[in-house]
Amino acid sequence: MIIVEDLHKSFGDAHVLKGISTTFDKGKTNLIIGQSGSGKTVFLKCLLGLFDYESGTISYDGKIFSKLSEDEKRDIRAQIGMVFQGSALFDSMTIAENVMFPLKMFTKMSKSEMEDRADVVLKRVNLDDAHKKMPSEASGGMQKRVAIARAIVNNPKYLFCDEPNSGLDPKTAIVIDNLIQEITDEYQIVTVINSHDMNSVMEIGEKIVFLKDGHKAWEGSKETIFKTDNEVVTDFVYSSNLFKKVRKMYLEENH
Amino acid sequence: MTYLHNIGLYFLMIKEMFRKPTKWSVMKHLILKDVDDLIIGSLGIVAFISFFVGGVITIQTALNIDNPLIPKYLVGFATRQSVILEFAPTFTSIIMAGKVGSFITSSIGTMRVTEQIDALEVMGINSLNYLVFPKAVALMLYPFAIAIGMFLGILGGMAACVLGGYTTLDDYILGLQTDFNSFHMTYSFIKTFIFAFVLATIPSFHGYYMKGGALEVGKASTTSFVWTAVVIILLNYILTDMLLG
Q: Which domain holds residue A191?
């Protein structure tokens, strides 16, 4: 479990995160949503330890990250898998080498053991025959799946995804969403997803944290987001006519 | 203030580069890859430039010696001194700032833009050690490239001298052997080692700390070349004054 308490982060005079508190549970897909500039990416980078923050705490299974030694921080990071918005695959390596990279860095596995493990996770993300391709030869959806395979190859306890659906067609986006949810459930990891995609919110948002102007404006789930009358949330989530209709139908059915 | 900030940041980068080393089994492959990219891949251009610059020095020296009292072997002597003291170590390093430096800046800068450096950091890897340290180690072989450059510069001078009919081969070789001071080689290789470190770290600094997108990668490569060349020229002056002055 990840617990965030009263997190504050500024860049010069700009106060970006203004006292965010929340928890992210094991085995659940936790979504952070909000408009551009609401502080989602900064929040995610604070969770990942890429940004320092002024005050507040982030604890990973009871260990307060900022109070850990460098070695202990490294141990926590070795348990983190991250799927970046642009996949962030190493373009000098093949897809199989990208997936094996965390194993090469953090385990004492032999080459054949690493290859076997890469096979397993590439199969898990439905990429059986892409081992020798370079990332530049793969489509956007394939790159995202390779990034997920690389993130889970070392059995992480925490999986972070920054806009995993950006730039993907709706069908591929659903495949990626379902894959993340299945992996979260199967490996019982803490998954935190930064997203703009309302389809993801409705499909896999077991917990949703809505940020606005650096504040946590609302917290709930894909079920409660239909029922909420919080105007800030409804203005954002139901800004499209399609979602307005979906909500109306849901409320009529469950009245 | 920005300059002071960047100088401070550069030295912090150097310090950070030696912290939390990457596993040796991974590091040795990175070093070998960088030796291939940075040294082996540059031998062609170093050889080409050295050979022809050596030839040009010889021709210009020979054409400027029109006094019959000045011995002809001076052409070989002047070529040797120019090539060993300045052209091979300094001139070639400035060319390398363009070739190797912009390669380093653009490759690290692209990794920054595409979040590959963030990916390394999230995994708990010291990205500076992973990216910059192998380049600094690989470029410690740079003096070998310069030694080849010295040899080819002198050879180019000899070819131009004999084929152009400026002096005889015997005179040229006599010039090469006249008043040879072995400390000049030491001075030249000390310079080369220091320039090699500059060639690895200044372009890495500009790539690693760049902000923005593809356009900024191009700008960072240009800035990196300018600063690498400036630092090499300044260090050249300081080292020459310290070691030969």
A: 1-79+158-221
Q: Which two tokens stand for residue B133?
A: 């340290």
Residue A8 DSSP SS3: strand
Q: Identify whether residues A132 and A26 lie together within a single domain.
A: no
Counting one residue from A and one from B, how many pairs have CB atoms under 8 Å apart?
Answer: 52
Is A90 in Cβ contact with B116 (below 8 Å)?
yes
In a domain, B146, yes or no: yes
DSSP-based three-state secondary structure for A24: strand
B121 contacts on A by Cβ (under 8 Å)? 50
Q: State ipTM.
A: 0.81
The pLDDT, as a whole number, for residue B196 is 96
Whether A7 shows a pLDDT value over 80: the answer reads yes
Q: What is the pTM of this model?
A: 0.85
The amino acid at residue B242 is M
How many distinct structural domains can be found in chain B? 1
Contacts of B116 in chain A (CB under 8 A): 88-91
R_g over Cα of chain B: 21
| CATH code assigned at A214 | 3.40.50.300
Mutate to test the interface with A, among B16, B104, B122 (most CBs of A within 10 A): B122
Q: Which residues pair with A3 in a beta bridge?
A: A23, A59
Identify the CA nearest to B104 among candidates B81, B136, B79, B60.
Answer: B136
With tokens 């953090």, the residue in question is A106
Q: Where are the extended beta strands (E) located within A35-93?
A: 55-60, 63-64, 80-83
Q: What are phi and psi of A182, to 5 degrees?
A: -65, -45
Q: Which of A155, A172, A205 is the last residue of a domain?
A: A155
pLDDT in tens, A57-104: 999 999 998 888 877 887 888 889 999 888 899 999 999 999 999 999
- Contact present, A84 and B118 (Cβ < 8 Å): yes
Pair A43, A13 in one domain? yes
3-state secondary structure chain B: CHHHHHHHHHHHHHHHHCCCCCCHHHHHHHHHHHHHHHHHHHHHHHHHHHHHHHHHHHHHHHHHCCCCCCCCCHHHHHHHHHHHHHHHHHHHHHHHHHHHHHHHHHHHHHHHHCCHHHHHHHCCCCHHHHHCHHHHHHHHHHHHHHHHHHHHHHHHHHHHHHHHCCCCHHHHHHHHHCCCCCHHHHHHHHHHHHHHHHHHHHHHHHHHCCCCCHHHHHHHHHHHHHHHHHHHHHHHHHHHHHHCC
Q: Is residue B101 part of a domain?
A: yes
